[in-house]
């Protein structure tokens, strides 16, 4: 069995409630998550705190991960979003530059992984640019600004069910746009 198959197995077991499997995932991925947080936050205590928050969030949302093989990227995405949220609360002007998103790759990533991640980010950015404003705004509010469904509902004067539908449709459209951008 190779390393990625082992990780898929651990994720599947953790999704079924196996705490030891989640602990093994923690041991395997803690260094890269911590390094990613430290690279952006440049504060040991804050990076450790954020990395812990990432693991708690990932544990709470693990049942939403549909493809266990995508765990590493999913965890990096959670970390990147939480870093952005933490930095934006600390220094709101820091988000004006796309380099914040681009620089969230962990410094320990292999060059090929960095290239693939950069291509995926470019595809994501292009896909977001091609979406209708309502789709883009809904996705950014939920994933980038970490707003709850209730907050988005209140701000857009639409029922929570409508916001859920918008997110579902927007994710589907974004997936199609990203696939087109990466071809």
UniProtKB/TrEMBL annotation:
<dbReference type="InterPro" id="IPR039425">
    <property type="entry name" value="RNA_pol_sigma-70-like"/>
</dbReference>
<feature type="domain" description="RNA polymerase sigma-70 region 2">
    <location>
        <begin position="25"/>
        <end position="90"/>
    </location>
</feature>
<dbReference type="InterPro" id="IPR036388">
    <property type="entry name" value="WH-like_DNA-bd_sf"/>
</dbReference>
<dbReference type="InterPro" id="IPR013325">
    <property type="entry name" value="RNA_pol_sigma_r2"/>
</dbReference>
<dbReference type="InterPro" id="IPR013324">
    <property type="entry name" value="RNA_pol_sigma_r3/r4-like"/>
</dbReference>
<keyword id="KW-0805">Transcription regulation</keyword>
<feature type="domain" description="RNA polymerase sigma-70 region 4">
    <location>
        <begin position="128"/>
        <end position="176"/>
    </location>
</feature>
<keyword id="KW-0731">Sigma factor</keyword>
<protein>
    <submittedName>
        <fullName>RNA polymerase sigma factor SigW</fullName>
    </submittedName>
</protein>
<dbReference type="GO" id="GO:0006352">
    <property type="term" value="P:DNA-templated transcription initiation"/>
</dbReference>
<dbReference type="GO" id="GO:0003677">
    <property type="term" value="F:DNA binding"/>
</dbReference>
<dbReference type="GO" id="GO:0016987">
    <property type="term" value="F:sigma factor activity"/>
</dbReference>
<keyword id="KW-0238">DNA-binding</keyword>
<dbReference type="Pfam" id="PF04545">
    <property type="entry name" value="Sigma70_r4"/>
</dbReference>
<dbReference type="Pfam" id="PF04542">
    <property type="entry name" value="Sigma70_r2"/>
</dbReference>
<dbReference type="InterPro" id="IPR014284">
    <property type="entry name" value="RNA_pol_sigma-70_dom"/>
</dbReference>
<dbReference type="InterPro" id="IPR007630">
    <property type="entry name" value="RNA_pol_sigma70_r4"/>
</dbReference>
<keyword id="KW-0804">Transcription</keyword>
<comment type="similarity">
    <text>Belongs to the sigma-70 factor family. ECF subfamily.</text>
</comment>
<dbReference type="InterPro" id="IPR007627">
    <property type="entry name" value="RNA_pol_sigma70_r2"/>
</dbReference>
